[in-house]
Amino acid sequence: MKKTALATAVVSLLSHAYTPPVFAKNTTTETDETMVVTANRFEQSAKDVIAPVEVVTKEDIEAMQAKSLDEVLRRLPGVQIGKNGGYGQKTSLFIRGTESDHVLILMNGVRLGSATSGVAAINAISLNGVERVEYIRGPRTAIYGADAIGGVINIITSTTNEYTEISGGLGSNKYQQLSAVTSTKVNDSLYVKVAVSQEKEDGFSAYSESNSNYDPSKDSDNDGFESNNLSLELAYKFSESFNSRVNIDYSEGSVDYDPAASSKDSKNYNVALSNEYKTDKWVTSLVVATNQDHNNEHSYSSWTGVYTDATFETQRNSVYLNSFYQLTNELNVGGGIDWYKDDVSNSTDAAKFDETSRTNLAGFVTGVYQKDDLQLEASLRNDDNQRYGNNTTWQFGVGYQVIEHYKLTFNSGTAFRAPTFNDLYSTNPIYGDSGNPNLKPEQSENMEVALIVDYFLATIRLAAYKNKITDLIVYGTPSENVDKATIEGIEISSSFNTGAIYHQLSFDWMDPKNDDTGEVLARRAKKSGKWNSSYAVNDFLFDLSYLYQGERLDYSGGDMLDSYSLFDLAGTYFITDSFSVSARIANIFNEEYETAGGYNTQERSYYGTVTYRF
After folding, report:
1. Are 117 and 422 within 8 A, CB to CB?
2. Residue 403 CB partners (closer than 8 Å, separation 6+)
3. 452: which residues sit within 8 A by CB, 6+ positions away?
4. Does residue 289 surpass a pLDDT of 50?
5. How many Å apart are CA 262 and CA 437, to the nearest integer?
6. CA of 186: how far to CAs of 160, 182, 448, in Å?
7. Quick check: 569 and 577 in contact, CB under 8 A?
8. DSSP assignments along 526-583, one per residue
9. How far is CA 133 from the centre of its chain?
């Protein structure tokens, strides 16, 4: 069940035209009012979703003063982050112990990511213009297809709220940020939203002195980044039943990284035309989208002492057709057809690939049943991929209200990850060819049982889960489907009030193990905990967060990374109805830590932001 940190206020402490969020609230009422679209691809109340779902709102992001998407995600249950340096650097996302390429990233419901690396560049996604982030833990391949083994993250920029906001900020390491957003209803039919932003920072050296490749003559310089972003939405209501929306998201940026003077320039975009027909009982949507993940890399090899230039580009065209019908008061049924084509022909290595494009055609059916104390969900999907053939996946969930305030849920399902173009065809004249065109998709079977205790001012969710992954692709010369992994865990999460202070806590005990070697999976801690608290008084808003990460293996056969604890404090002062100033101290106690061995992390840092909203 979902608890937002800021989205719904029960008590209004201020009478501003733009009222700051307030934290003390009835958590049960709040969940009932939260609507989500990601769990089953149609809008439903969070309380009706059996799988664990979290929603982070625009107000949440502003209160915590996050500067990057990973700073938002790391506060959520089940999430662990690995990063090769500061802002803009390569970022790995682990959900419940699964790999970074086991997480599906969506932008307004449209699949993002590279077909060569297999991951979406979350370090390149701007928070400006983001209205909310929906996060589903557990497999969702039977709904979305390949790669949703660990979970799904949907970044949503659409809204019907009218506002204009201008902000600017400064921070440590010469961080600078300028942004503007306007969202307006032109007339009864036309709605327009535009968001623009620029960020840059001098940063710090990505390599630490402990890195085995560290060369003080080449790697002691700062590794900064710069990012420019545009988000545009046009929505038109043709009638009470039919509307269309165009979303255009564009970002370009550059980042320096180690070794030496390596750098990467990126240009990414996502364009989607969404059409929806809706009646009291029927919802049908058609989405036609195209997106690009483009990177030019100028990289230095510590082994050869030579710089090389390479382009990595994925062009993806996709069509999604979904339809859902309320058959009875208790039963909703639906289904859809998904088609997409990945093309990597503009990549440097494409000439060495046996193929430079592939298509995927899928169909799925789903049903949601709810009557009295019983909830049921079931989905079945088949993906027919041009390269690796058919894969059929399913998922099933049941929830039962045992007695008042106490609910039991069970979720189970299968999922898979498709081999990337790099997995299949990558060549390297120095280290040997790792590509293997005979690779099969990775497969997983997952189940979770949970107890939810839901009272007026507090909710607790206690879950136990097991995810068994087979045919894991292991890098080699060539790569092979050789490993198996089992990830077992217990997760407890809670939201509650102590007076005017709102709290969100979570703790994970996890055993992510390679069954063939007995090793713990790299960069995943067995123990991790989060505590996020919020407090509003008079014209002030405060946010304090704590993150604990236990020790974890850096890489297979490598060293153990030490455990660490981080405290962040953010505050906002609403000077007038429209004008506010915000400040944040990151890593208050200047903890020395690593999320990836041999890479520096942020020391104690300071940030300030001025915002004018009207």
Report:
1. yes
2. none
3. 1, 406, 407, 408, 409, 459, 460, 461
4. yes
5. 30
6. 12, 12, 47
7. no
8. SEEEEEEEEEEETTEEEEEEEEEE--EESSTT-PEEPPEEEEEEEEEEE-SSSEEEEE
9. 8
**Closest of 52, 53, 38 to residue 110, by C-alpha:** 38
Residue matched to tokens 């932003």: 197
- pLDDT for res 4: 44
CB 51 within 8 Å of CB 63: no
Tell me how far the alpha carbon of residue 512 is from its chain's centroid. 20
Q: What angle do CA 251, 257, 263 make, to 5 degrees?
A: 60
The confidence band for 16, taking pLDDT boundaries of 50, 70 and 90, is very low
Nearest to 396 by CA among 43, 139, 78, 38: 139
SS3 379: strand
Average pLDDT score, the chain: 91
Position 428 scores a pLDDT of 67
* Token pair listed for 29: 């009422």
Per-residue pLDDT tens for 436-484? 888 999 999 999 999 999 998 899 999 999 999 999 888 777 888 878 9
Contacts for 525 with CB less than 8 Å, ≥ 6 apart: 80, 510, 549, 550, 551, 552, 563
pLDDT band, residue 13 (cuts 50/70/90): very low
Burial class (CB in 10 A: 0-12, 13-18, 19+), 301: middle
Q: What is the pLDDT of residue 399?
A: 97
C-beta atoms surrounding 575 within 10 Å: 12
Q: Beta strands of 238-388 (E only): which ranges?
A: 242-257, 262-278, 282-300, 307-326, 331-343, 357-371, 374-385
Tokens of 297: 């890399």
- Check whether 14 has a pLDDT greater than 60: no
Distance (Å, whole) CA 397 – CA 394: 11
CA distances from 382 to 63, 414, 448, 548 (A): 42, 12, 23, 40
- DSSP of 187-251: SSSEEEEEEEEEEEEEEE-SB-TTSTT--HHHHSS-EEEEEEEEEEEEEEE-SSSEEEEEEEEEE
So what's the pLDDT on residue 20? Answer: 36
> Amino acid letter at 351?
A
The whole-angstrom separation of Cα 110 and Cα 13 is 38
| 31-40, 89-98, 370-379, 383-392: range with lowest mean pLDDT | 31-40
Q: Is the dihedral of CA 111, 334, 448, 77 positive or negative?
A: positive
Separation of alpha carbons 211 and 554, rounded Å: 12
Supply the pLDDT for residue 23.
Answer: 34
Between CA 560 and CA 375 the distance in angstroms is 43
Give the tokens for residue 368: 């949601």
What are residue 421's phi and psi, to 5 degrees?
-65, -35
Query: Nearest Cα to 450, choosing from 163, 77, 182?
Result: 77
Dig out the tokens for 508 from the structure. Answer: 């994970």
- For 547, phi then psi, to 5°, come to -130, 125
